[in-house]
Amino acid sequence: MLNFVFQNPTKIIFGKGSINQIAGEITQEAKVLITYGGGSAKRNGVLAEVKTALNGYDITEFGGIEPNPEYEIIMKAVALAREKKINFLLAIGGGSVIDGTKFMAAAIPFKDDPALLLDNAGSAIRQASPIGVVVTLPASGSEMNNRAVITRKAFMLKRAIMNPFLFPRFAVLDPTSTYTLPVRQIGNGVVDTFAHVLEQYITYPVDGKIQDRFAEGLLLTLIEEGPKALIEPENYDVRANLMWCATLALNGLIGAGVPQDWAAHRVGYELTVLYGLDHAQTIAVLVPAIFKILESNKRQKLLQYAGRVWGINKGNEGARIDAAIDKTREFFESMQVKTRLCDYGITAETIPAVVEQLKAHGMVKLGEHQSVTPEVVQKILELCL
Ligand code: NZQ
Ligand code: ZN
Question: What protein residues have CB closer than 5 angstroms to ion ligand 2?
Fold first, then answer.
């Protein structure tokens, strides 16, 4: 096992009806900015539930944070927060609203140009406003981690920043808040969560037995429960298991002490910026191809994955790995997320643009061995067509 430091300060408040516990987490004197997305939180009543829980508080609202949160929009919220002297941020939504709110939290007290915070992957952050989260879409894991992924369309940039100040103080996970998710977002959430586990699991063995078995437990749960959410959207136990899976998949636990990959995520950001694919769609396309192209680097973990997660134990090594990759693709497709670039209207002519974007962003040595160079990305993308 590799050396590691693990600290996660986020308090989780889980379960049906738990939104009414928010008031206990925010001081009565706080000036609260509630942030949300394009309107789902209004339509499904979660925003109203939060406001009832915070009855008597000084509240300002900021809605309209879109998927792949845009810097320019977030900066409008920063201006509002500064003007209103906001000192607590409460995000209601999925990864986009949570990440946008995390960026606000860092930008509000930042004395210099907040655009600088996107440089150096967030290391310039020295303080942040306190954040609370009400999750309505289990996927990103952002509710219990120190990351935020922000887009600047004007610069064709989608970038992850990380800093310990970005951990939310608390996150409320009420599985009933996810009942209204459309099929597309149920699928996206399960695929993204699955990919978060794979990015920390399918690398090379370091005898991290606990991390491996936690990872396998999360994957098996997603395989078991994910498809059920599509046909029984109001099955509480299914939603509860998926919600807790998403949080545990990217809260630092399974990644502590083991190598991590993240090439699919990094290349995926460019596909989103260039062609507008949903984050999970990029992952569904890239993961099977990455496993195939990097089969020799990942051989031992792919064989372990084939056996322990998919029960594939017969045949030679290459055949077992191919079968596990096929199963992965079938699972993504069963969650209604397409796994080929052509499914999204992307053809071979577009590949050079993705590779150029990665080079422009200095992303030329990706993966757990830093072996995913632009040439390797080219091969991966060709296999994604
Ligand atoms: O905007 P509204 O109207 O709220 O609708 C949203 C949005 O259109 C809708 N939605 C959310 N909860 C709903 C709902 N619709 C009905 N009922 C509900 N209960 O879902 C749509 C997508 O929301 P979004 O927040 O964009 O989805 P997701 O949670 O998948 O987040 C994606 C973003 O997270 C980033 C991604 O890159 C992307 O920008 N990630 C963040 C990570 C992190 N911070 O650790 C890690 C991830 O790998 C990922 O990169
Ligand atoms: Zn992701």
Answer: 192
Q: Is 94's C-beta closer than 6 angstroms to any atom of ligand 1?
A: yes
Name the token pair of 202.
């399918």
Name the token pair of 152: 């600047």
How does pLDDT run across 279-311, given as a tens digit for each residue? 999 999 999 999 999 999 999 999 999 999 999
**Secondary structure E strands in 285-376:** none
Closest CA to 99 of 165, 155, 143: 143
Largest CA distance in the chain: 66
Measured from the alpha carbon of residue 49, the closest ligand is: 1
Rounded CA-CA distance 339/383 in Å is 11
Beta strands in 30-156 (DSSP E): 31-35, 58-62, 88-93, 131-135, 147-152
DSSP 8-state secondary structure symbol assigned to residue 45: S
Q: Is 68 in the pocket of ligand 1 (CB under 6 A)?
A: yes
- Separation CA 50–CA 68 (nearest Å): 24
Q: Best of 62, 149, 197, 254 to mutate for ligand 1, by most ligand atoms within 8 A of CB?
A: 149
Euclidean distance between CA atoms 27 and 142, whole angstroms: 23
With contact defined as beta carbons under 8 Å apart, do 165 and 106 qualify? yes
Q: Reduced to 3 DSSP states, what percent helix, strand and coil does the chain have, rounded to the nearest 5?
A: 55, 10, 35
Calculate how far, in angstroms, residue 83's C-alpha sits from the geometric centre of ligand 2: 33
Task: Tell me the pLDDT tens digit for each residue of 219-228.
Answer: 999 999 999 9
Alpha-carbon distance of 368 to 347, in angstroms, equals 28
pTM above 0.85, yes or no: yes
Write down the residue that tokens 């052509």 correspond to: 342
Rounded to the nearest 5°, which phi and psi values hold at 148? -145, 140
List the domains of the chain with CATH numbers.
Answer: 11-177 (3.40.50.1970), 182-384 (1.20.1090.10)
